Amino acid sequence: MLLILLSSSFCLGLMAWGLDFLNIIINWENLVKLVERTVRSEYKRSPDRPIYIVGESLGACIALDIAARNPDVDLVLILANPATSFSRSQLQSLIPVLQVMPDQLSLYFSYMLNLASGDPLRMAIENVAKGLMPHQIVGELTQDLVAMSSYLCVLADMLPRETLLWKLQMLKSASSSANSHLHAVKNQALLLCSGKDQLFPSEEEAQRLYHMLPKCEKRVLEESGHFLFLEDGFDLVTAIKGASFYRQGKYLDYVSDYIPPTPYEFKKIYESNRWVLAVTSPVMLSTLEDGKVVRGLAGIPSEGPVLYVGYHMLLGFELAPLVLQFLMERNILLRGIAHPMMFTRAKEGRMLDLGSFDTYRLMGAVPVSGSNFYKLLSSKSHALLYPGGVREALHRKGEEYKLFWPEQSEFVRMASRFGAKIVPFGVVGEDDVGELVFDYNDQMQIPSLRTFIKELTEEVVHLRIDASGEVSNQDVYLPGVVPKLPGRFYYYFGKPIETKERKEELRNRERAHEVYLHVKTEVEKCIAYLKEKREEDPYRNLMTRLVYQATHGFEAQVPTFEL
């Protein structure tokens, strides 16, 4: 993958070359051609691989112009706070002022430097997040302010009125050119817009571009400023991976193009879900080869392919502790087979923004399909499958811990083809963290909500249209849940079911169906076991766990029922 970065630093750096040189050489057309030559050269060298152009502010305008001029090149555009909104920004009004004012513009120049230098309060918050002590924070801020005051006058001399005016006129030309070519941009594009951009109305502009560009997605960073790439808390690679924008060929392959989370990425995900682990204190049990049940994941197979098949709690409450614990305890990355609604969305739809599911994609989720299932098992992955799907995760009142599986086998024959181990598992605890009080049946009695549910359901990809029974009801709705004083989550992984030595046997549909029913029965047994045993857990209640942790340390593992 080739990545071309066009940041504000690149564009500002041109200003130090001297105004006469800039006027002669670096006009807008020449600047675009300068980058375009690099793009064409790389395309000639690797025509089957995508070229990523990352553009910030003015750089985003360059990226859009190059995409419009080169429709034959597979370009992926990452656009951060594009300057296409220049005509609606405060900077636009500075041009006539600069044209008539004298060279001494310290007031205006200081103002612009303040916009570029960042927010000291935000810097302090980031330092706290990095674990710096208060006296260190004060020291760093003092050094920053002293350094800024020392070079402020130097920068003012380097950027006189003419140079600053040139920069603004360049932005005006860039914005005008990019906007005039937007209709020709058909490339995949990711818009990154900052909620606290003081230079441009980036959120409004992102919404406009989102509707104008046909293959566009957007992400809003509410606490970020204009110079996004200079912020310590922003990671460009994480943003690209989370949006599923990284690919090596013409089309995205969710299996072969996937890059596992880095330690830094995992740490951020873990920290954002730490409260879930704290309040649910998950208990995980697994089964060894000799049938012994142990606490922890020692009974989980190390080598893939492995297929984990289980019960989906309401709204998938069990997912975060499950995936995080597997990676922490066994260094196993569970590749969840997920509903397509997490990967595609209608632009005018009512579904959640796709950014809400970036963490799932970052942790390896793939859209459900036969080809993706095949690729996961053929690559010896640890795949996570919920046969009950949406119907199980969005169940009704009184249906907790009830399986809504299809009548026919969906996974056994594929698993046996690759000799995958099938691990049935059950999970309980949703009724200990919340009570479902306003379900699908209730909402369908209200005309406005009935219409809303219908519109939501029509937006998403329809699955199991040929299935019969309740599992075919794939209506999407938002359950009304009243929180409870949290109880505890319990997971029980049964003994792995071998298919490697039964490949020929399981080609027979009847034999495969027998195994399918066996797996379903094992999942139901796991659930029944946990429902019974949790009654014996003295630490099922949050308050008793807090008392235990207060005396043994908050990092101590809280005991559970005897096995």
UniProtKB/TrEMBL annotation:
Name of the protein described by the UniProt record: Acyltransferase-like protein At3g26840, chloroplastic isoform X2
Keyword Translocase: no
Keyword Acyltransferase: yes
Signal peptide: none
Family: Belongs to the diacylglycerol acyltransferase family.
Residues annotated as domain Serine aminopeptidase S33: 32-231
Lineage top rank: taxon: Eukaryota
Keywords associated with the record: Acyltransferase, Transferase
